[in-house]
Write a structure and sequence with these properties.
Layout (H helix, E strand, L loop, with lengths): L9 H6 L13 H23 L1 H26 L4 H50 L5 H9 L9 H30 L1 H11 L5 H39 L5 H11 L6 H13 L4 H21 L11
Helix pairs in contact: 3-4, 3-6, 3-8, 4-5, 4-9, 8-9, 8-11, 9-10, 10-11
Length: about 300
């Protein structure tokens, strides 16, 4: 039997009005000052990151190069060479390869652009005549005929700004290379400095990351080198079969840009498209399309994903 003497709360809760919500905290001057300081520090942090972006990118690329070249340095050390001599051999070989690629690629690309500018009026005339043959593209043909080819040639100011950017990019590239080989030559000092900047409680995680850096990043980059070589060979054969002049520098450029993720294929296809313009519509469509499809195929089948473990 239920206890009749026990009090009931339903009636009390129904009859008693609910307590009003507490008032919002007052907006004091101290709160406003704290919020303003926090926003200012956040904006200053973003500004500082923007200013240090080249430095951060240079450091990251240098670490990637270390993870890529360290197995080669270890192999040379295992053959009896000292650490310093091994790094010197790798440095000379790297600089030699870069100089050879530049000597093979840059002059031919400049000549290709010069020939394209010389042939541009004739190409414009032929394209206008083809578009005028159909009423669907006649309007587009008129726009092409009115286009001013002089706008394609950069002015003196634009050329100066572009040359300044090129010089700055070369400077950052040399800085990155110097950092990479410094890290490679003296890994003990670099590790000591790295562990000194990281709190002690994160040292175990940092050790795990550094041990896996060579395996993951180094394996990924070595896979990218293989795909770049295959891309260079395939592009050279494709351009040679299509009768395009100077196929070797264009193929080398396509292989170099293939290393870049996401945008590498686009950058490599632009010179191929430009070189194919004087050879007709079929060549213009076939060369970039086949090259991009081949790039995706070899990248998906050979190059390992950055998070996948690569042995060797």
């Amino acid at each position: 039997m239920a206890d009749l003497g026990s009090p009931t709360t339903d009636g009390d809760s129904a009859g008693t009005p609910s307590a009003p919500p507490p008032p919002p905290p007052a907006l004091t001057t101290q709160t406003i000052v704290r919020a303003a300081v926090a926003v200012s520090l956040l904006l200053a942090t973003f500004w500082l990151i923007g200013q240090l972006t080249p430095v951060i990118l240079s450091l990251v690329v240098a670490l990637v190069l270390v993870g890529t070249l360290n197995p080669l340095c270890a192999a040379l050390c295992a053959r009896g060479l000292g650490r310093t001599l091994s790094v010197a051999v790798i440095l000379v070989a790297t600089v030699g390869v870069l100089a050879l690629l530049g000597a093979l690629t840059l002059p031919a690309l400049v000549a290709q652009v010069r020939d394209l500018l010389e042939q541009a009026p004739g190409m414009q005339q032929r394209l206008t005549e083809r578009l005028a043959q159909s009423h669907l593209t006649a309007r587009l043909g008129e726009l092409v005929a009115r286009a001013k080819l002089q706008d394609l040639i950069p002015s003196g100011k634009q050329a100066y700004e572009f040359s300044s950017q090129v010089v700055a990019g070369l400077g950052w590239g040399l800085t990155t290379l110097a950092l990479a080989f410094y890290f490679l030559a003296d890994p003990g000092t670099v590790n000591a400095a790295l562990y000194g900047m990281v709190p002690r409680r994160y040292h175990v995680r940092l050790a795990r990351v550094t041990l896996n850096l060579e395996t993951i990043v180094g394996g990924y980059m070595r896979g990218q080198v293989i795909t770049s070589v295959l891309m260079t060979v395939f592009t050279y054969i494709l351009l040679k079969a299509c009768g395009i002049a100077n196929p070797l520098p264009l193929a080398i450029f396509a292989g170099i840009t293939d290393v870049l993720p996401l945008i590498g294929g686009i950058l490599g296809a632009v010179p191929l498209l430009v070189a194919a313009l004087p050879h007709g519509t079929v060549t213009v469509v076939v060369v970039p399309t086949v090259a991009s499809r081949h790039d995706r195929l070899i990248s998906a089948s050979i190059a390992p994903a950055p998070g996948r473990r690569v042995d060797g």
